[in-house]
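Now for one specimen:
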Amino acid sequence: MCSNFQALREIERMERYFRIHGVIPDFPRETWPGYLAPYIRRDHDSAEYAREMRAGQFGLIPHWAKDTKIGRQTYNSRTETSATKPAFRDAWKRGHRAIIPAEWIYEPNYETGKPVRWKIQHVDGEPMGIAGLWSQWRGPDGQELESFTMLTVNADQHHLMRRFHKPDDEKRMVVVLDPADYDRWLDCPQGEMMAMMTMYPAEMLTAEPAPAPPRAKKPVMSADEPPLI
């Protein structure tokens, strides 16, 4: 799971690694549930059917939600239940697939007996492309808000990611895509989506302590998704 990450904000890196052009809005560098951050999806209105960058809230808001509060709990979605959980099944079945560009993610490490924030990133310094789902929500005032969630898989056997979260908690990790699979993820038929939900190789990742500054520190949530939705 992941409730905190550093969004990719440099257009040069967005162009180089994700083939996205244009201007990146001034998103917060550190992203938490409820924050706006960039995500990538297909531009269905373009003749080229190209990738496009959108601004979305981290924490998916299904179309039936009465307000945006649910997004505080839907920032991750278990791939095992994404097709059936009410909060995520519409986006999954509609093929509303997203790629979340991140410089790195943060996870809590309890090996000292206390939670210490660690930074996890690609060994080569390239940004991560994390598989996700997106949704569009219309509020009571008629305004529309886009949102997204990161997809997760079990990581009990992952040599790196099993080091994070509380000792007795199930280990989870976000689905980090191979860059060669970006278009495949955005375009694959629904029946092939689960085949792409795999653990990223541990040897391709590196991690180190990265305690949050006192003013930036926020509580780390422990649930991948709310129990009642």
